[in-house]
Amino acid sequence: MIRSTALAAALITLTASHARAADCTVEVASLRTHLDDANDSTSAWNTAWTIAFGVAAVSSFSLVLAEWNPFGKYDANFKETMIVGGVKSTIGVASRFTVALRVHLPEHDPDSCVELAALHKEAQKLRKKEHDSFWLTVFGGTALNLAGAGILWHRRSFSIGAASFAIGFPVGLASALTQPTRTWRLVDAQTTWSAGVVPTDGGAMAILGTAF
Questions:
Q1: Labelling 166: which of 1, 45, 87, 119 has CA 20 to 30 A away?
Q2: What sign has the CA pseudo-torsion 109, 110, 116, 121?
Q3: Model pLDDT for residues 149-182, shown as the tens digit of each residue
Q4: Which among 117, 122, 120 is positioned nearest to 104, based on CA atoms?
Q5: Is-contact 176 134, C-beta < 8 A?
Q6: Could you give the angle at the alpha carbon of 174 between the alpha carbons of 172 and 178, nearest 5°?
Q7: pTM for the complete prediction?
């Protein structure tokens, strides 16, 4: 009877272990595919906006060096607008290198559950990068455009500063709105919250936690 019970317990444990490994294998395939796609989309976004800001910077400084306004008279207003625009675009290029979205896929592991844990960790890292990058682009870009507008207002006129802001702000906003945020949304959608109370020497302590 004891041997039969032990054998049954062993079979149940083995079956549960195989089921858990199978679940991990399925999740690994799904999450790795997601991160592969995220790697492609973030690389494309970084490259596209690096090129866009780079072209804008080169164009602005080139017009200043050539002393040419393709839309009308070349004067101090146009010159300083191009300089401010070129500096903002250069900062945009630099930001794509300093705070670029990058995905680091973990190596394959013989134990699918260990690999899944590593993929979850990378997904959480990418979620934070997407979150921080989005809001930095929104608020940082707005602050940069306001600073540029303020400089032109001080040096030239309010209308020149306002025109610069009207051109630069939508570009910065477009950069933020086109940024990939799929992992941010995925992690938030699959994160579960839990709460509990743990007894302590002095009474009790509430605990709030999350799991992805």
A1: 45
A2: negative
A3: 999 999 999 999 999 999 999 999 999 999 999 9
A4: 122
A5: yes
A6: 125
A7: 0.78
